[in-house]
Amino acid sequence: MTESYSNGTEEQILNRDERVKQLKNTIDTLHIAEDISKNGYLITSSELADLMDINASAVTSRGEEWAWRNWIVSRVRREGNQILWQLERVN
To answer: What is the pTM (predicted TM-score) of this model?
Structure first.
């Protein structure tokens, strides 16, 4: 009986550790987005997709301007075969 309780506790700890790790990754992502926004950097569709953890085609299919978390994402221009996006912080 102690063994199954112990395994359940270990499982809960692992789940909690995994959740905390995911939360830290989310915070890192938000800090990166804030830096991009604050510094006026333009990023490509693939970079934006990596930041949002989605497929690049999902980025381009969303249109010219849309909201993501605390930012408005706007299609700014095209450079060669790359679409460049800007993040603008909304409060």
So the answer is: 0.80
